[in-house]
């Protein structure tokens, strides 16, 4: 696949280095706020990247200097009728319609986490609501010094229903802090996000953060794709299951995966002091 296979409205998909894809949200005049077509396209992009043999790592970023994303475009959502449905349908039928809509929305955002390849999110500027839903799905988060975060949904009378309230409690950050920022919808900034462990690095500017993500991506892409993708799968499974379940899963998984030629190639490269070349997956 190539760039022409990833032509989607509101997104720029580029390939800045071998085996590295960069997905850029592209609605900067609206602070990259999401309308429905955007999350549908995002789901399509990440499902395709998940099985693209020419991609081993994905960087998720956003266009413009002001915002990674201001979250859901509330005005567009209200005009679309899903939030403010005043039809004559009875409550159960309205609820069924809305439940299905939320499920589709969740599935498209969850495609980031379900992507077989590691995803590095690079945040900057305004990063509200859906920005956190998306980036809690990423494997690694780094941000620019100017990043301003908020779990925003209570401001519009909602509980966040896409990822944040489900994923933050599993992100190894303090539960008291999670509840505080979710209940108050207050802004928090890059230094606080680093202190609690929501991001793993803070960079001076967006450009520096992107360069750091690209450097990290090149390193990951140089490793065995069997080893990398297996590691992501096992970590995510173990996060959501007991220790015994995790051990059993990796036992069965590696009974197949250790039979790869990648293990031999990696071991020999260490002994021969040369860079290994791994087959596409």
UniProtKB/TrEMBL annotation:
Single GO biological process annotation from the record: fatty acid metabolic process
Pfam families: ECH_1
GO molecular function: delta(3,5)-delta(2,4)-dienoyl-CoA isomerase activity
Gene3D superfamilies per UniProt: 2-enoyl-CoA Hydratase, Chain A, domain 1, Lyase 2-enoyl-coa Hydratase, Chain A, domain 2
Superkingdom of origin organism: Eukaryota
A GO CC term attached to the entry: mitochondrion
SUPFAM superfamilies (alphabetical): ClpP/crotonase
Signal peptide: none
Family stated for the protein in its record: Belongs to the enoyl-CoA hydratase/isomerase family.
Matches recorded under PANTHER family: DELTA(3,5)-DELTA(2,4)-DIENOYL-COA ISOMERASE, MITOCHONDRIAL, ENOYL-COA HYDRATASE
Protein name (record): Enoyl-CoA hydratase
Organism: Recurvomyces mirabilis
